[in-house]
Amino acid sequence: MLTKKVPVLSDIVVFGSPCTVHQDAKNKSLGARGKQGVIIGKSDEVKGYRVYIPRDKVVVVTQHVKNVETLTKEQNDQLRRVHLKEIDEVACDGSTQKEKTQATVHDEMRRNHSKVGGWTREAHMTRATSRKSREDNAEQKEEEVSDVVNVIRESDPKSYGQAMKSGLKDKWVAAMDEELRALEDNDVWKVEVPPKGSHVLHTKWVFKTKLNAEGEIDRFKARLVACGNEQVYGVDYGLTFAAVMELSTVKVILVLALRWGVPARHGDIPNAYVKANKEEHLEIFLAIPQGMTVPDVILKQFGTQGSDKLALRLKKSLYGLKQAGRLWSKLLDTKLVEAGFSRCMSDACLYFRHDGGELTIVGVYVDDLLVTATSQDKVEEFF
């Protein structure tokens, strides 16, 4: 899975499916309320289907699709509820956003389909609340079940507080403990009393459920990051630029791998950023993170009962800092050059090494490496 997200399949419809499209007949009380059409895809601009109307020889964009012949009655009902749910979400954003959305869709429809009168979305949106209130209990239960068909796990917590209230609290606590141990093992910081007037940055926990290739839960990851948005130029950061490998370079590596018959191998470096030292002339202090317990021996050392007067003085880089990418890039460049690699002039993130008639190529994208060579042994040797 490329996006690492479970796709929502409730509104997928077969290309070419015959259907009925609702037509607003408020100005035509005796006119038809629907027309026959053929679904030819989903709109890229707004939520809705692109439907060809043979009678008018036009393509319209609408959510008012009913009686899709390739779907069962239950699937048609589910399709309608999905659209009602999307409209409810728009309505919850407030009247200003709602009016903006309606105006945007109306303009789009008027611009693309001026030959066809009566196609509307506004009426459907303004009646969404009343329609939903008329859903009976059986239909509501059916909707609740269908909403979770493709959602098999909790969404990742957005904050420490959410993680502590999650049903997976124990998993997230274990992940945070693992992260703190890794940072301490890398000697990233030292607990101190910050000098008076010091600029102390806050920290934030980022939680992520890691999935394997089959889309199943592999592990729970918690990462501690500094709030780089609080940094002040010249106080706790300076230069920040770090090169990123071009997509064309990735293609070159893959083409070479194919030509040499040696599959390109991917690898990532765990806790990469914290392996780089921070700038010697800058002092960076972090507030004690949520979930971190300062040992009593350290509290006694500073003569304090709690950790509110203490801070972490960084000795190395940390995720979230504005300069973290640059510091890591410099460290990796140093290590690769020491290993005999040379940096390519056309792309600063591409390295190569000639060794006994063999050639090894390394592409760098932040902390991910893409490696191939003229022989499999050289690839294995690198890793």
Describe the structure.
By secondary structure, the protein is α+β, with helices and mostly antiparallel strands. It has two domains: 18-147, no CATH class; 160-382, no CATH class. Helix content is 33%, strand content 22%. The protein is built from eleven helices and 16 strands. It has helices at residues 73-92, 95-112, 122-126, 128-133, 137-147, 160-165, 169-185, 247-260, 296-301, 324-338, 376-382; strands at residues 18-22, 34-42, 49-53, 58-62, 65-66, 189-192, 200-201, 203-211, 217-226, 265-268, 285-287, 311-314, 342-343, 350-355, 358-365, 368-373. It has a five-stranded antiparallel sheet. The chain has a five-stranded antiparallel sheet with strand order 10-16-15-14-13, with helices on both faces. The longest helix is centred in the first third of the chain and has 20 residues, at 73-92. The chain is extended. Mean pLDDT is 80; it is low at 86-131 and 141-152.
Strands, total number: 16
Order of helices and strands: EEEEEHHHHHHHEEEEHEEHEHEEEEH
Number of domains: 2
Euclidean distance between termini CA atoms: 25 Å
Alpha-beta classification: alpha+beta
- Approximate strand percentage: 15-25%
Instruction: Name the average pLDDT.
Output: 80
Q: In order across it, which strands form the biggest sheet? A: 4-3-2-1-5
List low-confidence stretches.
86-131, 141-152
What about the largest sheet?
A: 5 strands, antiparallel
- Helix amount, in percent? 25-40%
Q: What is Rg?
A: 29 Å
Number of discrete helical segments: 11
Specify the overall morphology: extended
